[in-house]
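tool=predict chain=A
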Amino acid sequence: MSEESHSVFEMLREDPRYKLEAYEFVGEALGYAQRQLGMGVEAISEDQSEEEALAARHLTGQQLCEAIRQYALEQFGYMAKVVLNSWGVYVTLDFGEIVYNLIRIGQMSKSPGDRLEDFEDVYDFGEAFQQDFEITLPE
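tool=predict ok
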């Protein structure tokens, strides 16, 4: 077992609120935000230092929550809220808790101005994951 996976499993033992899938999904959503949505890539240039490039690629808590919302809808459709809830994720602050757990074990990084509270009440799950779906029954 690699040290990285050992850290993840130790973290899951210390904080069992969220399933492993929730952590994996947040990491995937970060990549989705950068690749598909172009978040955190517009300010990067070749003459920047590595530190400047990392800062330019940074997403705020609110931006990451929005990317997670879009990625969840793309991946799970009208079942997005159900899937997230099954992993222990019920509010946007849960995304922040996941991110900060990953920061603690070195799997993600943060900027000096980042705070856990940046993830609080970004959107309501009921509205964010169910507003675009309409089920109509035949008459």
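The two ends are 57 Å apart (CA to CA). The CA atoms of residues 60 and 114 lie 7 Å apart.
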